[in-house]
Amino acid sequence: MAVGNNGMKYKNNKNKLAWTNSISRDKALSGPSLKSIFSIKKIVSSTLLAISAIAVCSTSSAAVELTHQDWQVACDNTRTCRLAGYQAENSDFPISILLMRRAGSEANVMGKVKLGGAKESSTKALLQLGNRHRMSLFIDGKDLGETKPFSTVAGDAELTATQVAALLEALTKSSKIELVMRNSRWQLSDKGAMAVMIKADEAQGRVGTPSALVSTNGASKSNSNVLPPKPAPQLRLIVPNIRATSSRKEKFSMKPSQLSALTKGTIANVDTDCPNLMDKSPWRISRLNGSQLLIQHNCWMGAYNAGTGMWVMNDKKPYDPVLITTEATDYANGKISSVQKGRGIGDCLNKTDWIWTGKNFVKSHESSTGLCRMIEAGGAWQLPTYVSEVNTLR
Q1: Is 270 in a helix, a strand, or coil?
Q2: 178 neighbors 88 (Cβ within 8 angstroms)
Q3: What is the pTM for the complete model shown?
Q4: Cα(225)–Cα(209) distance, rounded to whole angstroms?
Q5: How many helices (H) and strands (E) are present in the chain, helices listed first?
Q6: pLDDT mean over 364-371
């Protein structure tokens, strides 16, 4: 699945965009969030409805996503939150700022800025950016000084602690936020920032505490209420032995039509998720161990994305095929990956990985690269909603 500029998830299937409103997946905006939003700066009801309509909560209880106007937040399963803001969509000078905060009462906010050169108007200005030239942060015309040196490797520059503090304050109200270099100015939008800041506070248990990004009429709770970080799951990737032989001591053989019929029942909606399942394209079969197989079949192809179906199946009855995904784009050495573009020019991606643990495939990573805002090819940042620590056993 991919995320468009409006924060809704879609799959580019059969050269058409099948939009799926994800409102039903997020219940985290009820309760404290709505009360907080109403009490801060008198955000109007229509804005709250817009926020609710595009909120997304992942399958992990600690993972939260919200996109609102020109800002988004993604909190992963360790409770680390990353907030990304962008220029207004009609701007010729693409810019994005990333604010990251780990869980825990003592966690500070770190900030980075990345300037986009995908538009011709900003390319020339970016060519001047290097070790000798630094960007300066201006908020409502006030010079907040230069950022830390620009990293040509990472393509971004870190904000100072003073700049981060000033930026967080500015984002709670209407502000003009600019990154300036020589005669060029990149303006960061503040629209939607408060909503995602409140969402991050809620995900980390900071609402009403002194460490909250957004103050709700004074701190009513102590920082002891802030949620601690959660450890990332420890996973073990077992690289399949491609030379493994079947415990049956005979080669697996099944007609393509039989494989299609066998796997059809594992897909909720074949017409949308795997319309090519019954066609004559070949099945690809890899051995995982002495009794299990990975079987693959082309599922769908759109204008700029494609998806392959992946199943784990026993090599004898009962075959019991288990669907892993219909959106895979690669498989190698026990790892399935899905990388999907948010739009054709590829300035935003969504990625999911699954690894083989010896018995089944489990999700090991899920992330997006942010909104499609012409920052750079492949997207501006890594915004994970699920992370793990993977150890490989060969």
Answers
A1: helix
A2: no
A3: 0.83
A4: 8
A5: 7, 26
A6: 98
